[in-house]
Amino acid sequence: MRAYEQLKQDIICGTHKPGDKLLMSHLKTQYDIGTGPMREALSQLVSERLVTAISQRGFRVAEMSLEEMRDIYDARAHLEALIVKLAIERGDEQWEAELIGKAHTLARVDEVNSAEDMLNIWDTRHKAFHSAIAEGCGSPKLLEVRNSLLDQAERYRQLWLKQTVFSKSALEEKRNEHQALVDALLERDSAKASELMYEHLMTPVPIITALLDEE
User: Spelled out in words, what is the top-level CATH class assigned to the domain 66-214?
Assistant: First the structure.
């Protein structure tokens, strides 16, 4: 599904903007792929709510809205809070070791020199850290729903990332948030860890709200 992955990434990153028509003739040329595979890719993205099918008129990139963003972020944060509780109940020593390791590599991102590299590496390590926490829940179905919500949130999250300035103070603030979360997880304090996770995942919402209001 090369076309699916490439088109999905281009929508998430804003190469194709909300409301843009996705003309089959242009897409086939751009992604060097036939009509069948491209239509299959578009259908998959419709199911993921990144593309909208217009009766008899083709496809468009799905619109973005404050209402959708808030719903996605709230649902995601509540789900992650539940997953944290289960991870604390079910996670073993290997799980603890994995999340400590991911937290350590994330905390070391300030050693990267380029601002662009820092953003990309921080984002990759940040996702790996949160995935390591979630894996402890031991539920493939919950992780499947989690991944779906991550995909739906990613376009909005990219708006936040592009506005994020990784100063030393900003990195320190995020490092402290992550360390507090790790401490609560290792202490097996499910109430505190769930609360911290919910608050942590909701922090981009005011920034994204302001950016969407501007548009």
Answer: mainly alpha
